[in-house]
Amino acid sequence: MEETAFLAPHGNSTFGFKLAGDSYEPDEDLQAPPVTKWIRNGRSFVFVSRADPAVHFYEPQSGKRWSIPLPPRSQPFDLAVWRNWLFVAAGGKTLLATSEWEAGTTWTSLPCDKNIHALAIQHETLIAIDDLEWLRYELTPGGASELSSIELPQYSSHTIEAAAYCDGKFATLSGLVFHGLVGKYARILCGSTSQELGHAGTVEGHFVWRHRFSFPPLKGARDIAIYRDVLVIAADNHGLITTRMSAEPMPLSECFSGEYCGVLYDGFRQLWPDPAKRRPIVRVQACDEPAGFIVTSTERIQGRKVTPWEAASSKKRTSATSLFLSYEQVNDLINSIPPGTILGAPLSERSRRAELRREAAKENKA
């Protein structure tokens, strides 16, 4: 019998997914709001949902499930485990820790004066990433101590909206403000030095289709994940965006001029994986085993808008669908689609077709 491979949102709940034939299908309803982030801890899963002030645990072999309440009004969105210590980013400047994994535990608040966007364990250090700085906590058997910070490289005013960590690198997704213009910005940062390895962006104020200095679908970016040499972005109504990363920094791409450089060398592609066709893609998480990416899409939110999407789903204002794309599948997609491609057509071809349509409309109007 196949074991639970990963956790993902399905319908209005969190499900354990198992291999069924050639694909992974929802199998076990964990009766918790749609998962925001999960990690493996031995043979068990630990997960949180932004819509639920609690940390949840699931042991597939025994079927045991239990939860640890968080302080009221917590919106947990990331977690990390080191030995017997559990760390939770619970929203805003709240960073919690505990070494007791049973109901009734007492949470310890770590010193934190920054809005945390992601957590990672690197060697014997807990890293909490903020818009401007990384907070580093030295880890000991007694917990986290010796707080220090490293300032991040800045090129404009930006606010991190999503971040992910893998193999010593952070991928961050930011809202960008630059000389009165707004846009989105993806960066790859070294986990040891915090130095930038590569970046790409789109500025809506410079949105000119015939000039290929940015990739317009990035403006819808909502979530980001990296695994090995592949970067995947959930771009809401713009589908899924993928690119490849280099092991070493590369020269500026001709396709994207100064807005696209570093390890993000290969050019973005936009696509819609089935069965997420034309549904907003709101979440992506990398997975080690099986190796690949878990992609979550939602139906259009019904009635009054509820945010975040996890809360909208738990209130049954929308419904989530998750699918798994293996690392090989994403690699094949990147290899089969030319760089700078939007929905099967290179950006320049789409731009030229748009120009022809506008010219034809002017002629008809005349």
Automatic annotation (TrEMBL):
It comes from the Bacteria. This is Uncharacterized protein. It comes from Taklimakanibacter albus.
